[in-house]
Amino acid sequence: MIPKTHITQKDIVLQIKDLQKSFGDNHVLNGFNLTLYQGENLVIMGKSGSGKSVMIKCLVGLMEADSGSISVMHKDITKLNQSALDILRADIGFLFQGSALYDSMTVRENLEFPLRRHSKRFNKNTTTDTLVIEALQSVGLESAIDLMPSELSGGMKKRVAIARTLILKPKIILYDEPTSGLDPITAKEIILLMKKLQKQYGTSSLIITHDVDCARVISDRMLLLIDGKDYAVGTFLELSKNEDPKIKAFFKN
Question: Could you tell me if 21 and 122 lie in one domain?
């Protein structure tokens, strides 16, 4: 992450200001703000139903906010047409909670799928095979290239999903509960892999998690989403020592 003393406006890769979203009388997002800097790992924690999923859907243009602004790579997504939004989405990688691999496709075919939609992003001399193998090597799974998802363990599926996310070389990655459903040892391996890949690819990451250990290891900063707002923002150490009861509740064993 860029040192705080050197941060400028141009180092901001994603910014949400005063986001509002309601469903009838249910105010899910109530003036939510977020800033993500180049090369930063920002962890978002919030209770179930706190608005994390709604925020992500607004962020990628799958849901329209009632008001507020969302700027990605200095472009206001609320003002983009569908074509421009599709291009911008290619710069945002998304790791789904359940990995979301296509069961009927091999690992190779799963990774080739996004390449078919965004072939113009790459040099004509760069082959699909080269990109697939490179992505699998980055997660240590090149030997699984011709396996089916049913032949993979939970940890292997997560690695393949990460490889598929990385294959388009996105500038921002959104991780949705990256350690969910994994045993503690595999979860730690995935966390360390995420840290390694962040440095290797220079991505900026938003990480939604309930896993306090994941937040402790991977976060540069944390944001606690409470009552539809960015209730608290700081480092893991700063927030874990905060005496506010609402904040302390996130760090109880």
Answer: no
The burial of 124, by beta-carbon neighbours within 10 Å (0-12 exposed, 13-18 middle, 19 or more buried), is given as exposed
In a domain, 120, yes or no: yes
Q: Beta 67-72 vs 12-23: how paired, if at all?
A: antiparallel
One domain for residues 102 and 14: no
CATH code of the domain containing 78? 3.40.50.300
In the prediction, which pLDDT does 4 show?
53
Higher pLDDT, 120 or 106: 106
Residue pair 29/220 in contact (Cβ under 8 Å)? The answer is no
SS3 for 71? Answer: strand
Distance CA 247, CA 244 (A): 5
Same domain, 131 and 238: no
User: Distance between CA atoms of 136 and 143, rounded to whole angstroms?
Assistant: 8
pTM of the model: 0.86
Domain of 138?
96-169
Annotate 97-128 with three-state secondary structure: CCCCCCCCCCHHHHHHHHHHHCHHHCCCCCCH
